[in-house]
Write a structure and sequence with these properties.
With 597 residues, this protein is an alpha+beta fold. The chain is built from 19 helices and 19 strands. The strands form 3 sheets. The protein has an 11-stranded mixed β-sheet, sandwiched between helices. A 5-stranded mixed β-sheet has the order 13-16-12-18-17. A 3-stranded antiparallel β-sheet has the order 15-14-19, with no helix packed on it. A hairpin with an 8-residue loop joins strand 14 (507-511) and strand 15 (520-524).
Length: 597
């Protein structure tokens, strides 16, 4: 029996002698099965066999994706196979793979084929294609979600370990929610988009569908990195996830912002998912999503419809009749717009971005339904636009505001259909979302995709222990603790939580006079001291240096001796600064002091 296609299972089987050629051939054969109809536009047997032949001996260190089969959305170039963007008249065969694909091949991944999509990546339903549409992996009567429908279905049906999508309005998340998958949408610019047919170049990113968060992260990490040939590439590091911090605050839609369009099953499943958040120690804060909904409304108005038109304008001039009717209805609407309309949209987005900024005060992330309702394919016959707009309720604002996002499976609905939530955070906080998302996925206890295989346990020491090479550990004991007011300053400098640990019992903790904000002072006294609750975070060297520059006297940075035997740099207080301070050592830590008022 073949193992499930998640990375940990496949790599264990490869260590035991499984031939990766057998896995690739199995995926290619499965893609021809009736239930996989419409999933692929083209298969890549020659490319798969060439990739297997180039693998060499099993080495998951040199090639972290060794032998893992993957699929590519057919608006992303794979050398030697036509790129159609689900429009046969647009097809051309690239000699060079997209940067993202080339990096996956170098990491040992094996391409299976090119997947179906909403034409020109315009849509969230997944069936706007001249090819037979992909079938939802749980219920063929329900839309598979788009635009990356084929990629999601390929992974959910066990035809690939992971698959590439693109995400402009939610195309890397909506299909994940409708097929019980992880959908990772990285920070804009972190993964190069050279070799990707553009939808909205200012918003597009390459996304990943996978059975587990760990697999999605491995693929994204292999693709990430600056590309000088890509004008949209940014020097953004995907910082590896650590453990889930002890305290987090997640914003959730308030009563006026909960939109499920009459789908009670979806709403109840979301409420069950929120209980998983609280079980992980995450505080839920209801927030008004009105500014975010206003941003989302811009996506299919002036500036960004015009951007979709500009992306394929020469093709439209020569092949206007080749557009799918619904795609044409959307994109050709730009012909009535002026440059002034585009600038008006850009100006309005700037206003709304400023209006939305306070929403993040005191929040670490947002938690939203991935899709607010499951729509039936038949409903699109009566209204091809309305369901699509509804599916983007909680996705359309993300790229416009340069946020990162991660869709994760959650408790199933009462009717047995999958459900999921999406985590959203400011740019650069992808690692935090991965840490929380992996914990949530395991707490949900649902199988992987539609395969029925149970989710494997997490890595034995996932994210635990010391800082990665090149980073500096920092001990915090006060307002920089997770969930505290100044923690966001630490995160903004690239801080990642590593562990919660007490100091050795040789310190006195004081509440210093003055403020706000109230500040603690930690003094090493040797005898007569006590243990104080602390957290260890890690920072890149430049972030650590900038952080130290902000530490005001009488606080200073010195070595803090911890109960686990380590002594990282951390906050201490000069003895002279304790005049008028209150000794609170007996409380055990700053969090207890704040909780007591």
């Amino acid at each position: 029996m073949s193992p499930p296609l998640n990375r940990s299972a496949l790599h264990a089987a490869y260590r035991d002698g499984l031939d990766p050629a057998r896995v690739a051939e199995g995926c290619l054969a499965g893609a021809e099965a009736p239930e996989a109809r419409g999933t692929f536009i083209a298969l890549a047997p020659e490319a798969a066999r060439a990739a297997v032949a180039a693998l060499g001996p099993f080495d998951p260190v040199a090639k972290p994706l060794w032998g893992l089969p993957f699929a590519v959305k057919d608006n992303i170039d794979l050398a030697g196979l036509p790129t159609t963007a689900a429009c046969p008249a647009f097809a051309s065969t690239p000699e060079r793979s997209a940067t993202a694909v080339a990096r996956l091949l170098a990491a040992g991944a094996v391409p299976v084929g090119k997947t179906n999509l909403d034409q020109f990546a315009t849509g969230l339903v997944g069936v706007r294609s001249p090819y037979p549409p992909p079938l939802n992996s749980f219920d063929p009567a329900i839309v598979p979600g788009g635009s990356s429908s084929g990629s999601a279905v390929a992974v959910a049906r066990g035809l690939a370990t992971f698959a590439l999508g693109t995400d402009t309005a939610g195309s890397g998340r909506v299909p994940a929610g409708l097929n019980n998958l992880v959908g990772l949408k990285p920070t804009l610019g972190a993964v190069p988009v050279r070799g990707v047919v553009p939808a909205c170049q200012t918003l597009d990113c390459v996304s990943v569908f996978a059975l587990t968060v760990e697999d999605a992260w491995a693929a994204a990490s292999a693709m990430a990195g600056y590309d000088a040939e890509d004008p949209w590439s940014k020097r953004v590091a995907l910082r590896a996830p650590g453990p889930v911090p002890p305290r987090l605050r997640a914003g959730v839609p308030d009563a006026r912002s909960r939109r499920f369009f009459g789908d009670g099953n979806a709403e109840r499943a979301f409420d069950r998912a929120l209980k998983l958040y609280t079980g992980l120690g995450i505080d839920l804060v209801e927030v008004d999503f009105a500014p975010l909904f206003a941003v989302a409304a811009l996506l299919y108005e002036g500036a960004w419809v015009a951007e979709r038109y500009a992306a394929i304008r020469p093709f439209i001039a020569a092949h206007r009749d080749a557009l799918h009717p619904t795609t044409a209805r959307i994109i050709l609407g730009a012909e009535s717009l002026s440059a002034a309309d585009a600038f008006a949209g850009i100006y309005r987005l700037a206003e709304l971005r400023r209006e939305a900024e306070p929403l993040w005060d005191g929040l670490d992330l947002l938690a939203v339904p991935t899709v607010p309702r499951a729509y039936r394919v038949a409903e699109l016959d009566a209204d091809p636009i309305g369901p699509n707009a509804a599916l983007g309720t909680y996705t359309n604002f993300v790229n416009l505001l340069d946020l990162c996002a991660l869709a994760v499976p959650g408790p199933f609905r009462d009717d047995g259909f999958p459900s999921g939530t999406t985590l959203v955070a400011p740019a650069g906080r992808d690692g935090l979302l991965a840490a929380v998302g992996a914990a949530l996925h395991r707490a949900a206890g649902v199988p992987m995709g539609a395969t029925g295989h149970p989710l494997p346990p997490g890595p034995a020491a996932a994210g635990a222990g010391g800082a990665p090479a090149g980073e500096v550990e920092l001990v915090v004991i006060g307002a920089h603790l997770s969930g505290m007011p100044l923690n966001r300053d630490l995160v903004a400098l690239g801080g990642t939580f590593r562990r919660a640990v007490d100091t050795r019992p040789e310190y006195r903790l004081h509440a210093l006079p003055g403020g706000p904000p109230a500040r603690p002072g930690l003094l090493r006294v040797g005898d007569g001291g006590g243990a104080v609750a602390a957290e260890v975070w890690s920072l890149p060297p430049d972030g650590f240096g900038r952080f130290v520059d902000t530490v005001p006297p009488p606080l200073c940075i010195g070595r803090v001796r911890l109960a686990d035997g380590t002594a990282p740099a951390g906050f201490l207080c000069e003895p002279a600064g304790l005049a008028g301070a209150r000794d609170i050592t007996h409380l055990g830590g700053w969090r207890a002091f704040v909780a007591g008022g």
